[in-house]
Amino acid sequence: MTRDRAKLRNKTAAKVHESGVTLIELLVGLVVTSLLAMAVFTFFLDTSRGISQQNAQGDMWQKGRNALAIMRQAVESAGYGLPTFGQCSNGIVGTSNLTAIAGALTAITASVQSSGSTYDPTTTNGINTYSLNTVTGGGIFGGVPATTVISQRGANISVSDISNLFPGDITLIALNNQSCVIGQITNVAGKGTLNNACLVTGGGNATGKGTVVFNSANGRGSCFQANPNQLFSLANPTTGTAITNANFTNAQLYDLGSQNFLFTTFQIIETPAGSTPTLYMTQYTGSQSQSPDPQPLASGVVDIQIKYGLGNGSAIQNWISPENYVPSTTNAIVAVQIAMLVRGTQYLPKSLSPSSFNILGKIYTVPTSNGPGCLQGNCRHYEYHLFQTIVPVRNGIWGQRLEG
User: Fold this and answer.
1) Which residues of 280-318 are buried (b: 16+ CB within 10 A; e: fewer)?
2) Helix, strand and coil percent figures for the chain, each rounded to 5
3) What is the distance between the alpha carbons of residues 142 and 139, in angstroms, rounded to a whole number?
4) In angstroms, how far is the first alpha carbon of the chain from the final one?
5) Backbone angles phi, psi at 44, to 5 degrees
6) Contact 169, 189 (CB under 8 A)
7) Taking the mean position of all CA atoms in its chain, how far away is CA 150?
8) Is the C-alpha dihedral spanning 17, 23, 25, 30 positive or negative?
9) How far is residue 380's CA from residue 185's CA, in Å, rounded to a whole number?
10) Nearest to residue 156, comparing CAs of 231, 221, 208?
C-alpha cells in the first residue's frame, strides 16, 4: 500500500515537471511579446504622427484659404465708389498726419512693413514682408462738384455753397494746376463740428456761401481718418513750391462723404514679440469715435509678398513690386498677385521642412534658431504651405499716388 502511494506521488511529480515552462522558453516568450508590443507601439506612434501631420496640414489649409479669401474680397472691392478725375493729371498732391492709415484714399496700397514695429522677418531671414491697404468708397458723390472754392486762408477755405458739405466729409479739391488735394472737413460754418463721439454738435441747415475748415482734430483724431493739418502747405508737384491761395481760386470741390468709406489693413503682427506671427485685419470707417482693434485672421502667417500687375485695359503687361510702381495713365494696376507663406502650429520633431521658399522671386529662409513662435527656435520642425493667387482689380481706381 505504501509502495503504491509512493509510485503515485512520483507519477504526479513527473507530470507536474513535464507541464512546466523552462527558463529559455520564458525568455523567448518575453522577447517575442516585447517585439510584438514594440511593433504595435511603433504602428500607433507612426499613425499618431501621421494624424498630427494631417491635422497640421488641414489646419494650415483652412486658415490659409480663409485668410486669402478675405484678402481677395478686399482687393476685388477696392476702388468701388472712388472717383476717377481727369482734373488730377498731375497727381494727387497728398495728405499728411493721417490718424489711421497712411495714404488712406489710395484704393490699393502695399508697402514693406516698418522695421521692428509689428513684425520684422529681416532679423531672422533677411526678407521684407508686406502689409496691404485697401479702400472702398461710398459712391455718393455722383462725380459732380459739390461747390467751387472762392479763396483759401490758412486752414480755411471759402466756398460758393455749403449746402451739401458736412463735418467729417472727405473731400477732393481739383486745383487749377491740374493736381488735387484730399482732406476731411473739420467743421462747416453754421453746421457745427464733430464731438468726441463723432456726432455733429451745433449743427444747422446753413446754405449759400460759407467757410469750410480743414484743421487739426483737436483731440478727436479717431473721428478724422483723413484729416491733414498741413493740407495747404503741401508741395505743388509741378513747381515743387508750396500750394498757394491762387491755386485754390475757382477750384472744384468734390464731396465724398464719410460713413460709407471702409479702410482695410492686413499686416503680420507678433503679440507679444517673439510669439507666433499672425495675420491681422483692421477696418476703419470714415468717421468713428474709437480706433478699432486689429482682428486676428490666421496664426502662423510668416510672410506675405505682393506684386502689381500693370497694363492698359485688362491685359497684364508686366509685374512689379509695389515700391517700384510709378503711377501713369498707361500703366494702371489691373491685378494684384498675393503670395502668403503659412506655418502650421503643430511641432513635429521627426519632420523637417524645406530650408527655404521662393515667394514671388524672393527667398524666404526658414530660421533654425531664434525662430519666432517656434519650439526651441527651429522653425523647420513645422509644416509649411505657400498660398498664391492673382486677383483682378474690378473697379476703376486712381492712377495717382498719395504722398503723406
Assistant:
1) bbbebbbbbeeeeebeebbbbbbbbbbbbbbbeeeebee
2) 25, 30, 45
3) 7
4) 121
5) -65, -35
6) no
7) 41
8) positive
9) 52
10) 231
For cell 498660398, the residue is 387
Take residue 15 and report the three cell numbers written for it. Answer: 507530470
Rounded CA-CA distance 230/272 in Å is 35
CA distance 65 to 67: 6
Sort residue 269 into left (φ over 0), alpha (ψ -120 to 50) or beta.
Answer: beta
Considering only residues 225 and 341, tell me which one the structure prediction assigns the higher pLDDT. 341
Q: Is the dihedral of CA 112, 114, 119, 125 positive or negative?
A: positive
Longest dimension (CA), the chain: 143
SS (H, E, C) 97-117: CCCCCCCCCCCEEEEECCCCC
The pLDDT score that the predictor gives to residue 355 is: 94
What Å distances lie between residue 87 and 83, 180, 214, CA to CA?
11, 8, 21
d(CA 317, CA 30): 73
pLDDT tens digits along 14-52: 555 555 668 787 777 787 788 787 876 665 555 555 555
State the DSSP string of 149-197. EEEEETTEEEES--TT--TT-EEEEE-TTS-EEEEE--EETTTEEE-TT
| Of 348, 366, 285, the residue nearest 59 (C-alpha) | 348
Please tell me the distance from the alpha carbon of residue 393 to that of residue 329, in angstroms, as a whole number.
Answer: 16
Given a contact cutoff of 8 angstroms between Cβ atoms, the answer to whether 261 and 255 are in contact is: no
What is the C-alpha to C-alpha distance for residues 140 and 259, in angstroms, rounded to an integer?
A: 11
Quote the DSSP letter at residue 291: P
Please check the confidence at residue 9 and state whether its pLDDT lies above 70.
Answer: no
Q: Which of 78-87, 188-197, 253-262, 263-272 tops mean pLDDT?
A: 263-272
Tell me the one-letter amino acid at 276: T
Quickly count: other Cβ atoms within 10 Å of residue 373's Cβ.
18
Residue indicated by cell numbers 521658399: 357
Place of cell 486658415: 63
Instruction: Give the pTM.
Output: 0.72
Distance between CA atoms of residues 293 and 287, nearest Å? 15
The answer to whether residues 404 and 102 touch, using CB atoms and an 8 Å cutoff, is: yes
Grid cell of 292 as nine digits: 478699432
* Residue 248: C-alpha distances to residues 86, 96, 152, 217, 317 (Å): 17, 18, 6, 22, 38
